[in-house]
Specification:
alpha+beta; 2 helices; elongated; 4-stranded antiparallel β-sheet; single chain; Jelly Rolls; about 150 residues; about 40% strand
Length: about 150
């Protein structure tokens, strides 16, 4: 009888550990910047810099993508959006604090350059690429934090 109780206790303990690990794992994915786990993950994965790449299709209503920045306060953002052909695209970045940055300087070439100085707001950013003309335009975006 004691062996049965010990086996049941061990099984319940193992289930508790597995549920706890799964809960911690799902919480780690949604932790805000600055938390110990998010900072440790950033340090392990991106010691000096981080890059975000997107391939998308810009439409007149825009193609929105989001990414998270949890880097050091000394890091800045730079990048570009490029496409084929003589199209007129606009890039809009919205920071976690709601600040909006519009990049729309190169209407006769096939790229937009993006650069924001340090310090950057920590958290989720949104990038929207909009075709100022009609139809759809395939694009490639690369954003770097250094």
């Amino acid at each position: 009888m004691a062996k049965i109780i010990a086996s049941m206790f061990a099984a319940l303990l193992m289930i508790g550990v597995l549920v706890g690990v799964a809960t911690l794992s799902s919480q780690a994915e949604t932790l805000p910047c600055g938390s110990a786990t998010a900072s440790a993950e950033l340090a392990a994965a991106n010691t000096f810099e981080s890059r975000v790449y997107y391939d998308g299709t810009a439409t007149p209503s825009g193609d929105a993508r989001s990414f998270r920045f949890c880097g050091e306060d000394t890091m800045y953002m730079s990048g570009f959006v490029s496409w084929k052909g003589n199209k007129d695209l606009r890039v809009t970045l919205v920071s976690p604090d709601g600040s909006t940055y519009v990049f729309d300087a190169y209407s006769t070439v096939s790229f937009e350059y993006v650069r924001l100085g340090a310090p950057l707001a920590h958290g989720d950013w949104e990038m929207t690429v909009t075709n100022k003309g009609s139809g759809k335009v395939n694009y490639h975006a690369a954003i770097e934090f250094r």
